[in-house]
Amino acid sequence: MKIFNSTRSVPSGRWSPGMLHPLPCSRQRLQHSSAKKRSTVGLAPFFFGLLFMLTAIATEAPAGTGSGELVVRPQGPVASIAEAIELAEPGTTIRIMAGTYNERELVISKKLTLTGEGFPVIDARNEGFILKVLADSVQIRGIEFRNTGVSYTRDHAALLVEDANGVVIDGNRFTDNFFAIYLATVRGSLVANNHITASGTREASSGNGIHLWSTWDIEVTGNTIRGHRDGIYLEFAKGALIYENVSNGNLRYGLHFMFSDDSHYHDNTFSNNGAGVAVMYSKNVKMTGNRFVENWGPAAYGLLLKDISDSQISGNLFRDNTIAIHSEGSNRIAVKNNHIIRNGWGVKVMANSQNNVFSSNNFIENTFDVATNSRRNYNTFEGNYWSRYDGYDLDQTGTGDVPHRPVRLYSLIVEQNPASLILIRSFFIDLLDLAERIMPTLTPETLIDEKPLMKEVNL
Amino acid sequence: MNTLKIIKYQLQDVIRSRWIIFYTLFFWLITDALFRFGGSGEHVILSLMNVVLIVIPLVSIVLGAMYLYNSREYIELLLSQPITRSSLFSGLYAGLTIPLASGFALGILVPFAYHGGLTSEAAAGVLFLVFVGILLTVVFTALAFSIALRFEDKIKGLGLSLVLWLFFAVIYDGLILFIIFLFSYYPLQNPVIALTMLNPVDLARILLMLNFDISALMGFTGAVFQRFFGSGFGMAVSLGVMLLWLAIPLSVAFRVFLRKDF
Amino acid sequence: MITISNLQKSYGRLNVLKSIELEIGDGAVTAVLGPNGAGKTTLIKAILGLVKPDSGSIHVNGTRLNGNSEYRRDIGYMPQTARYPENLTVQEIIDMVKDIRGNGPGTDEELIGSFRLGSELGKKFKTLSGGNRQKVSAVVAFLFNPGIIFLDEPTAGLDPISSSKLKDKIIAEREKGKTVILTSHILSEVQELADRVVYILEGRIAFDKPMQYLLDHTGETTLERAVAQMIQRSESLQADEKESATQVNNEKATHFTNGREAAGVKPATEANA
User: Fold this and answer.
1) Is B82 close to C73, i.e. CB distance below 8 A?
2) What confidence tier does B230 reach under pLDDT thresholds 50, 70, 90?
């Protein structure tokens, strides 16, 4: 179980200082906060901000240009961020002091660094977007973005980055925005350690937390997202690296991606999202060490796979989901070393999913370990642990001597007539299942684990 | 006061009797074996669930009826003492249900304790299982009492008890499934919930389901199930109806007992 | 003092007691006799409150029976077959009755000694012989010095010594002015103990006479013969009535023949007022 407590430090990854132009301290901060547990992520920037504030007070100089630094504070002389952006030369660091700035529709089209000290708040008062970045190598840190407008026709974002390269969005807060972070046609950028919350109640009036559209090599890490439509949304995001994020309590999907090949998702937690996680129309996807927990509801999946191929799903935890893994039109996926426990359905494989291999997984106390909609079977189940298995291992090989049939007759009954779900764990149903196991007439004949493990796989 | 005295001597008697020791050992051995072969507390609870739903109703209803038939002369003796019928009735009922319930609870909780299952996250689960088991015990002994007091003939009474158990524990769910398929084109969720309420074994099963199979239930696309099972409402209704299943047979038995000629 | 008036009880269509009128005074042993199924036990159970009468009234020591239980504080009852919880010891059974009765003064444990039950006190009830079970039952019946004692076949299964001890006890209780009500199939025993015989036949009191009157009136020396003669007389009386009666029913009954039980079919009339 240890694997799921994702307290690992940042792997070297593909993101490197050379690609971007970070301040020395940002790198240091990133490492520092990632090395800690996630709960402290939000605090680290705060302390740094405090440190900056103290030094700012000590070394205060009149605002001006040329020093490479510009200070914005509510009482002036530069009292608005818009003015500072206007004044600043490329390469300037704009330090925004604590306070509330009622500004919106700011546009950065030169290389700037915006650093909040003591979490200044930019409040758009429910109208329009807040900040649009159109230049490369812009860095945004320590700022709280609040209350973008809600629009059904325009994707108002707190922070929109468009056509840019090497942007860093690190350690900010986003509160009650329509979209929080929106990246469109962006390359080689970092979205890290942001705290994103919204109190959306309807999908239509709620945007996504982190939205990537047409991006290359974006790294999204250490963010927490709650209350948006989709926590993390990726469309045409090639080569994304998504790790150590927590996405919970979002209205639709915790993570939702489409047409995003060659991406790697690891050590994220997706819990209590309206419909779990949906991954669609992509190939060569790696999903490892994630936690999919407590995604409940009529249409909730731990992980919904639709037209995913040549991918790998391993070392994940699926617990208390309505359907842990639902596979539709997905082929050649290796599902290995996953811990699938206490879900309604462990794995639901539709007949259009073929050549997938399920091996060395733990299927524990799921109401239905495996369900399918066909008597044919084109997938392989081998060497999994099934808590329902009641065979024996007389020859002491560690695998049971009789094969295991993971598809219950009852799952077919429920598929045909959902009202019969009320008979879960009825003795009568057990009798039916037993009869079917002895003489299979309705369940897929070849969906068999020939080598069921006697003991759980240690993960 | 007299009720307590009767309970005291009933307990002394029942605790020394062979069947209650068997009953306790039965749960003890099964729980112990499940731990030794199966492993986790969670797993043990789920396996025990089926045993509880079948064995407790059977033992409670059959032993309950036997107990009354066998105490016939003793009841007469006690009724010739200055003792009211109502206190004798409560004494007899408690004198049976307390040992049955505690035998079952001990048989499960002790092996759980020494296998370390009570400190784990399974503790709440096993306590709920024990709670539901006790509910089944009191309901089915109440049913046994109402049967045994109604029918003078021991063979008839015991036969009826067995038939009632078979009906509630096995046949009833078959009928529900049959009805579900027969009327599969109609909205069935409300009627099906109502049907399960009419069977105490199903009720107990639903209570346990709400605790352990919530994932599957929440996956049900029907709004009625969703509303019923998704909130505390289902739990509250099931518990309430379960209490009716206790109150009605017990008050029937009580009324018969008050008027009965011994 | 027990007063019964117009007591009726039927089980379904079977009328077990038909308008029983009876008064049982203190300081006497009253034997209630009759064939099996005549209604003796039902009558006694009605007085004990075990059977709820359909109509009529029973007064015990001036208290009218209506579901109350306190009047039984003055009653001791020794049933035909006693069964206590199997796993209780004799001592625990005695303690239990004391406990239920509220441990009042005057417990009478003399019988434990005279029955030599001392060595049995620690044994479980289920291990006792039939005779010893009877003895326990007798001890319990006399334990609280009740004013009214019901004994249903008290000596059945007892050894001769215990049997005579029990009879001595009964006689002694009568001397103390207690009311003893006795049923027995052993008529010599009844003759020895009883002052009065109430004979019940098919739910009615066929006759209710002092012992001495029965013997004198029939001129017999044994109760057995006296009772037989009384029955024959009432039968011939009934046969006469039957001819004039319009209603006939063929109920099965058993009655005494020669002091022993035997089954016989005997027509009985319902129309007998």
Assistant:
1) yes
2) low
How many angstroms separate the CA atoms of C5 and B117, rounded? 67
B interface test, pick of A325, A416, A422 with most B CB neighbours within 10 Å: A422
Q: Tell me the nearest-neighbour CA distance from B30 into chain C, angstroms.
A: 27
Specify the amino acid at residue A306: K
For B222, the closest of A322, A387, A418 (CB atoms) is A418
A333 within domain boundaries: yes
Which tokens is C212 given?
């001495």
Q: What residue type is C181 in one-letter code?
A: I
Given CB atoms, is A368 within the 8 Å cutoff of chain B?
yes
Domain span at A307: 275-407+444-459
- Model confidence pLDDT, tens digit, residues B194-214: 898 999 999 999 888 887 766
Take residue B59 and report the two structure tokens written for it.
């033992």
Tokens (6 digits) for A125? 């008062």
Superfamily of domain covering C2-265: P-loop containing nucleotide triphosphate hydrolases (3.40.50.300)
- CA-wise closest residue to C99 among A257, A274, B2: B2
Task: Kindly state the DSSP code that residue A399 receives in the 8-state scheme.
Answer: B
What pLDDT is recorded for position B212? 74
Residues of A in contact with B174 (CB under 8 A): 428
pLDDT in tens, C154-170: 888 888 888 888 888 88
CB contact under 8 A, A297 and B218: yes
Q: Which residues of A touch B215 (CB under 8 A)?
A: 296, 320-322, 342-344, 367
Q: Which chains touch B (3 or more CB pairs under 8 A)?
A: A, C
Alpha-carbon dihedral sign for residues A6, A10, A14, A17: positive
Would you say A133 and A164 are in contact if contact means Cβ atoms under 8 Å apart? yes
CB distance A347 to A358 below 8 Å: yes
With an 8 Å Cβ cutoff, is B81 touching chain C? yes
Q: Contact, C206 vs C199, CB < 8 A?
A: yes
Neighbours of A393 (CB within 10 A): 15
Residue pLDDT, tens place only, B22-51: 999 999 999 999 888 766 777 788 888 889
Instruction: Judge if the upstream peptide bond of residue C146 is cis by omega within 30 degrees of 0.
Output: no
User: Residue C245 in contact with residue C269, Cβ under 8 Å?
Assistant: yes
* Residues of chain B contacting residue C97, judged by C-beta atoms under 8 Å apart: 81
Q: Do C77 and B259 lie within an 8 Å CB cutoff? A: no
Q: By the CB < 8 Å criterion, does A320 face chain B?
A: yes
Is B19 an interface residue toward C (CB < 8 Å)? no
Residue A107 lies in a domain: no
Task: With CB atoms and an 8 Å threshold, state whether A367 touches B216.
Answer: yes
Cα distance between residue B97 and residue B103, in whole Å: 10
Q: How many domains does chain A have?
A: 1
Average pLDDT over residues C37-57: 86
Amino acid code (one letter) for A432: L
Closest CA to A211 of A197, A191, A241: A191
**Which residues of chain A fall short of a pLDDT of 70?**
1-67, 201, 204
Instruction: Please state the domain extents for chain B.
Output: 2-259
Q: Compute the distance between CA of residue A343 and CA of residue C24 in angstroms, rounded to an integer.
A: 77
Q: Is A326 helix (H, G, I), strand (E, B) or coil?
A: strand
Contact A376, A400 (CB under 8 A): no
Residue B205 to residue A424, Cβ atoms within 8 A: yes
Complete DSSP assignment for C5-20: EEEEEEETTEEEEEEE
Q: Which of residues 178-207 of B touch C (CB under 8 A)?
A: none
| Residue B262 at interface with chain C, using a CB cutoff of 8 Å | yes
Look at residue A58 in the predicted model and tell me its pLDDT. 41
Q: Note the pLDDT tens digit of each residue in A254-264.
A: 999 999 999 99
For B110, the enclosing helix (H) or strand (E) is helix B85-114
